[in-house]
Amino acid sequence: MRNTPTHFDVCIFCALAEEVKAVIEIFSERCDADFADLQQDGRTYRYTTLANNSQESLNILVAWPPAYGPVETALFIQPVLKMFRPRFAAMTGICAGDRRKVKLGDLIIAERAFIYDSGKFVTDEHGQQHHQHDANPRHPDADTLQFVRLFDDWQDAVAELSRPPSKRQQRDWLLQTLLKPATPHIDDLEEADLEAHAPDWLQIMKELQKGPESYLTDKRRLRDRKQVTELRFSEAFPFQDPPVAKAHIAPMASGSAVRSDTPFDDVQIPVRGTVAVEMEGAAFYRAVAEFPGLSSLLVKGVCDYADPDKEDSYHQYAAQASAAYMLCLIQAYVTLERLPRPKDDQPTPPDSEPDGPSTAEGLGDELLKTLSRIPALQDSSARDHLLRGLPAGPATAIGRNSAPALDLENIVFAAEGWERLEVGERPLAVIARNALRLVQGTALGRELNSLLAVLEAD
C-alpha cells in the first residue's frame, strides 16, 4: 500500500473536471506516474510522486473546488495551501483569447491577473451605460516570472499532443474544395476526405447555409463562386492553423461569467495588454499572496475566442497543453536549490532528536508591537529600510508579499515564514537591527536592543 506523503512540494489547482483529467493524463503518460486518492477534512484530492530534472522526488497534489467561479476558488485555495504548505502553487486549465492577438491552442502565462467586472456602472446623460473599472492586478512572484521568460523546454511536450483542426480551417478547406471543378457539390466529396479535413463538416455546412449572404445553397453547392474567391483579398484564405502553439506572457482577466460577446475591448481598458479572459485566475493569485515565500504560476490554454462562435472542440487540447507546459516547468524549476523545503518538512535523521523550538519563536508579535511605535515607520515609504541587508531571496519575497504599502504586520509575518529556511541571518533579527538604527539611544531603542539579543542568540 502506498504511504501518503507527509508534505507536498507542488499543489496544482484546476476549476473544471476536464482540466483535472488533463493534468492527471499528461503527468501519468509523460512520467509513468500513478495517482492515488487522498481524503482530508471531508475533501478528496489526487496525488502522485515524480522526479524533477535533478532526479529529486516531488510530491504533487491536484485539487479542485466543489464548483467553478472566482468565489468558490478563493474560498477553496487558501485552506488547501495552509494545510499542505507546498513550495510551488500552480493553476492550469482553459481560457478564451483575443483572436486579434492569439490563436486557438496558444498558452497564456499570466504575468498578472485581475477582476475585470469590478468597479461601477454609470449611465450618462444620453442613457448610455459605462463601466468605471476598479482593477487590482495580482502577480506571481518575480523569480518565477523571470525564469519563464526564457523557458522553452515545454515546446516538444506540447508539440506531441494531438491538435484538432479549428472550425475556421475546416470551413476554408470545404469552401476551397468546392471551388474545384471536380467537386462542386458536397455530395461529390469522399467521406474519408471529409472526416480527415473537416470532421465537423455537417455543422459547418449548416452554418454556411444560413443568412441572406450564405455561401451554400440548400442543394449543398456554392451560391456564388466569386463570393468565395473574394475571401482571398479580405483575409488569409484558405486559413491554416499554426503548426505549433505559442506561449504569451501577458495579463489575464477574470470575471464571474462565461463570455461569448467578444468582451476584449472592455477588459483591456484597465489593463491594455490583456489577451485572455477566464474566471478563477485572479482569485488564485490573490490566495497565494497570503503565503509569504510561496512561488506560483497561472497557465491556461486558449480554447475559444469568447465570441458567438464559441464551442468546445478545443477544450481538451487547450487543457492538455497547459498541463504539459506546467509539468515541464515544475520539473525544471521546483528544485531544492531554487526552492528549498522549509526546515520542518525535512526528514528527521534516524536516531536523532527533533530540533527544539526556534529562539525567535513567539517574538514576532513583540517585534511588531515595537515597530508599530516607531514614529519614522508610520510612513510606509520608509519601511523598505527594514529590509536592508537581507539575502536577495527573503528580501524580494518579504517585500513582495508586504506590498503595496509594505504593511508592518505583513513584513513581520513574512519574515517569520522565512525563519524556517536556510537564508543566512535570521530575517527577524535583520529587521530588528535596521529598526534599531532609527531609535538608537531612546527607550524604544533599549527595548529593541534587548529583543535583538534574543533574536541573535544561537
Give the total of domains: 3
**Helix and strand run:** EHEEEHEEEEHHHHHHEHEHEHHHHHH
| Number of distinct beta strands | 11
Question: Tell me about the biggest sheet?
Answer: 5 strands, mixed, barrel
Are there runs of 5+ residues with pLDDT below 50, and where? 347-361, 420-424
CATH class of the largest domain: Alpha Beta
Gross morphology is elongated
Question: How would you explain this protein's 3D organization?
Answer:
The chain is an alpha/beta fold and 458 residues long. It folds into three domains: 10-163 and 243-333, Rossmann fold, CATH 3.40.50.1580; 167-233; 364-456, no CATH class. The chain contains 16 helices and eleven strands. A five-stranded mixed barrel has the order 5-10-9-6-11, surrounded by four helices. Helix 2 (70-84) runs parallel beside helix 10. The radius of gyration is 27 Å and the shape is elongated. Mean pLDDT is 87; it is low at 347-361 and 420-424.
Structure characteristics:
Rossmann fold; 458 residues; 34% helix; alpha/beta; single chain; 3 domains; 16% strand
How is this structure best summarized?
34% of the residues lie in helices and 16% in strands. With 458 residues, it is of the alpha/beta class.
SSE topology sketch:
Layout: E1 10-13, H1 17-31, E2 36-40, E3 43-51, E4 57-63, H2 70-84, E5 88-97, E6 107-115, E7 119-123, E8 129-133, H3 142-148, H4 155-159, H5 167-178, H6 191-197, H7 201-208, H8 225-229, E9 247-254, H9 264-267, E10 276-278, H10 281-288, E11 295-304, H11 315-333, H12 364-371, H13 392-401, H14 408-418, H15 427-436, H16 443-456
Parallel strand pairs: 1-4, 1-5, 5-11, 6-9, 9-10
Antiparallel strand pairs: 2-3, 3-4, 5-10, 6-11, 7-8
